[in-house]
Amino acid sequence: MHGTDTAPLTVAPAIPSPAAPALLITGEVRRPITLTIEHLRTRWPQHQAQVVFDCATEGPQQHSFEGPLLREVVSAAEPAFDPCRRKDRSRFLLTAEGGDGHHSVLAWAEVDEDFGDAPILLATRMDGRDLDAEGSQLVVPTDRCGARYVSALTRLRIDACPAPA
Fold it and tell me: Does residue 97 surpass a pLDDT of 60?
């Protein structure tokens, strides 16, 4: 998926059916993409995470998730990093938006293999159940609090953080 062609790469219909929720990856990327749960399940290696976190509304939670690594999926959209400057990646932010309006922000450096290397997932299964009807879920296994878990993902946006004035 690398190259100089800047045409948008669409791997799902522009208007997915209600039975196939879509995840858009946009922002400062060379190839904006639209993905379904099926794409997430079949195009990338699947990883598992057993997690325990505190939920503000439902108390302690314990779940098993399965899905691809966030960094691998977002990398397919070819973030607009300067390839000649390794530190350039450390100024990018990821915003994850859910179908219920919840959103969360991560630093690209958290997931980048050269920096934090966090095993953050885009879950396609939870507790052995497919998430096809609900949509994928952002899973941050290292978090004690569940606030950065985003259900029914609709968009991942990657942008450079502006330099301080």
Answer: yes
